[in-house]
Amino acid sequence: MKTRKKPKPASPALQEKLQQVENLAAEKGIKVHYDRLEAAGLKLKGGFCTVRGEYNIFVDKRKSVVEKIEFIKDYMDHETLSASPETEKEENPAPKA
Hints:
This protein is 36% helix and 24% strand. The chain is built from 3 helices and 5 strands; from the N terminus they run αβββββαα. The protein has a 3-stranded mixed β-sheet with strand order 1-5-4. A hairpin with a 2-residue loop joins β4 and β5. The longest helix has 16 residues, at 12-27. The chain is α+β, with helices and mostly antiparallel strands.
């Protein structure tokens, strides 16, 4: 029977950096979700989506703290985040009946 090695806990400095990135995402109106991302036996990396006008980033909780930080930062820099949901509504109003 194989024993799994427990990953070393991240340094407090890295944990603080992750918290800062999560706070920055929240300030931009982005919700960060951590979960074990698998579907039909496939390991998923995570991703970005909008649900009812709210931005969401899904991150696999098995990633290292460094990978989580980079993943969130990459998606926050994504060009679709340049406009908030409110701005998009103003720029693209719903068609009038």
